[in-house]
User: Which sequence fits this backbone?
């Protein structure tokens, strides 16, 4: 089959005289960015919660921005991403005293999206960094689960699923930790979002993980990596993705040689399972080594159209 529901995660960075910039620094740049994605055939859009106010400033409202997306071939904004990478005394999912604040933050994001066509996912990184949480214990994972049960019950009441996206440097990263977390979360309220590269770096098989949580899976970030973290780089302060001494670059787009993710096998499992959601292309670090996001996105879409489209 040829999969039709391809989304793009809003991670684009432009090289400008002021340095790397996201496309939201003016309207014409944002429009050009959207049209490039449309020309490649993407039909949906995932973004970060902090970009929504910028889009509203440029277009007059978030709904007007979505209308521009729809005028350029997109169905809708599918997911909104939020995270607390570093623990503070106000925002630490493993600390119960911060839960009320985090629930209120998430409710604010959900309400910000009211009036849009139908955002499906509130995508969250469910923990702070591993280093900010350790020692990671069964109790810290269970307390974290309590928080996201609350957020998920709130978000589903607004028509949006709460779905958890796990980083290789987060405090829930191993198969056992994932199982414990999902064991203590309500499947009605807490769902699973599969990032192929993040799992692979953590030594977790994304295909097996998808099959284990298929009934709770609401989406994917399709990106590749050439590295499994065998040196505890996930404990690098303050940002393992940018500052780990052992690895110059963690992430690559689909279609580049040397990648560790078996995308055809994963695609076959998705098709065979009957799963029918949006598959999202994401790029991190695509500007490294003289490359750029436009090229990376084109390479990934070529791979989709010429390799993944052949999966039956």
Assistant:
């Amino acid at each position: 089959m040829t999969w039709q529901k391809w989304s793009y995660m809003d991670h684009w960075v432009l090289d400008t005289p002021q340095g790397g910039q996201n496309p939201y620094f003016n309207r014409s740049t944002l429009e050009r960015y959207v049209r490039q994605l449309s020309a490649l055939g993407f039909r949906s859009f995932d973004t970060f919660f902090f970009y929504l106010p910028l889009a509203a400033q440029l277009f007059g409202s978030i709904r007007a921005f979505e209308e521009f997306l729809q005028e350029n071939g997109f169905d809708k904004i599918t997911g909104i991403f939020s995270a607390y990478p570093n623990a503070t005394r106000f925002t630490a999912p493993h600390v119960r005293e911060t839960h009320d604040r985090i629930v209120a933050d998430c409710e604010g994001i959900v309400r910000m999206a009211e009036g849009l066509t139908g955002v499906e996912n509130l995508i969250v990184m469910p923990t702070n960094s591993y280093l900010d949480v350790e020692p990671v214990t069964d109790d810290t994972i269970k307390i974290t689960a309590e928080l996201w049960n609350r957020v998920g019950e709130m978000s589903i009441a607004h028509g949006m699923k709460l779905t958890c996206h796990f980083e290789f440097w987060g405090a829930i990263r191993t198969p056992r930790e994932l199982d414990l977390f999902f064991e203590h979360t309500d499947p009605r309220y807490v769902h699973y979002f599969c990032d192929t590269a993040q799992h692979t770096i953590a030594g977790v098989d994304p295909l097996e993980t998808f099959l284990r949580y298929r009934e709770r899976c609401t989406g994917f970030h399709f990106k590749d990596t050439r590295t499994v973290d065998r040196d505890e780089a996930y404990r690098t302060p303050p940002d393992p993705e940018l500052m780990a001494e052992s690895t110059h670059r963690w992430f690559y787009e689909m279609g580049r040689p040397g990648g560790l993710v078996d995308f055809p096998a994963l695609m076959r499992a998705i098709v065979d399972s009957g799963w029918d959601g949006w598959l999202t292309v994401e790029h991190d670090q695509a500007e490294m080594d003289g490359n750029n996001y436009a090229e990376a996105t084109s390479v990934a879409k070529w791979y989709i159209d010429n390799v993944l489209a052949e999966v039956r």
Observations:
- The longest strand covers residues 76-82.
- The radius of gyration is 19 Å.
- The domain at 6-310 is CATH 3.20.20.150 (TIM Barrel).
